[in-house]
Amino acid sequence: TISISEDDAHDISAYLKKEAAALRSKAEYDLKDELKQKQSDFKLSEPTDAAVRYIWNGFLRDAKCVHCHAGDQRASSRFLATPAGLASYVSRNNPLNLWERLERRSFEVKSGIGLQKPGMPMGGPPVPEELRHLIKSWSLTGCKRPDGLKLCPPEKK
Question: Nearest to residue 98, comparing CAs of 89, 107, 108, 88?
């Protein structure tokens, strides 16, 4: 252990905060480039009926959304991890936000830097690439429910 003055501790803390902010800012810039690249490489395909059923019945559990976005948890106020909550979210928001948050988590794990707007699942392993691709395709093709109803207008790539 070494002793340092309160002033030195304050200076070191300020320096580290400034460095962390610079790293986070660079990471956000790098993420934007990576997302642009993923956009240009993306091959859109309509999800199968089985994939749509999975999104509505298993994805929220498998992607660990239910750990924070269920019941009385604070995160439930932003998004409730139930079929009704998913329907409400994609009807009120750009559904690609869900895909981007999944991509953000993958980037955080890869880069080792937490982002200003965190990725999901927060603190857990990233959702596999195949599932992120499925969520993006589903979002771009209208957020279809198992009964065939599309909840959001199809987006252009």
Answer: 89
Q: Which of 154, 130, 146 is nearest to 57 (CA)?
A: 146
- Could you tell me the pLDDT band of residue 154, with boundaries at 50, 70 and 90? low
Burial of 119 (0-12, 13-18, 19+ CB in 10 A): buried
Beta bridge mates, 150:
144
Write the single-letter amino acid at 60: L
Closest CA to 30 of 125, 120, 106: 106
3-class SS at 144? strand
Please tell me the distance from the alpha carbon of residue 118 to that of residue 102, in angstroms, as a whole number. Answer: 9
Q: What are phi and psi of 144, to 5 degrees?
A: -65, 140
Write out pLDDT tens, residues 49-79: 999 999 999 999 999 988 888 877 777 778 8
Give the DSSP H/E element, type plus range, for residue 61.
Answer: helix 60-62
In 74-121, alpha helices (H): 83-92, 96-111
Could you tell me the end-to-end alpha-carbon distance of the chain, in angstroms, rounded to an integer?
56
CA nearest 93: which of 40, 153, 8?
153
